[in-house]
Specification:
Layout lengths: L11 E6 L2 H13 L7 E5 H6 L10 H13 L1 H14 L3 E6 L4 H17 L3 E6 L4 E3 L5
Antiparallel strand pairs: 1-3, 1-4, 2-3, 4-5
Length: about 140
Amino acid sequence: MKDETLVYPTGKVVGIAPDRESLEEVQAALSASGVSDDRVEVYCGSDAAEEFETDTEEAGPLTSALRVVQKALGEEVHRMSMLNDALEAGAFVVQVQIPEDDEVHEAEKRSVGNALHDGGAQKVAYYGKLAVEELQIGA
């Protein structure tokens, strides 16, 4: 599990495992679908929740400008707040990096989303550069 600074998860499929048992099931489902461990990041607890902050007070000018745009767009800030709330409640946030290769990107995004759902993850979505795409089961 990560203690590093967490940033907006661009290019990743993200889901919430509400408890340790769910986390283990999610990890097993990802492994069974062929996702290597080096592509998976798991965050937990209130320490990680602080790293999901969307306030601009302590950010540099570029980050502050980006946050203003994100607030205007709405969904990204809502999603980051949801992830923050989950971490504060003791849940686990699981992120899986998706290859940028156009030939496998869509299929891999769907495969990882389905594996997260199969393992019991909630609020599964792909975080793109300018949009968040909710991933439904079997999509």
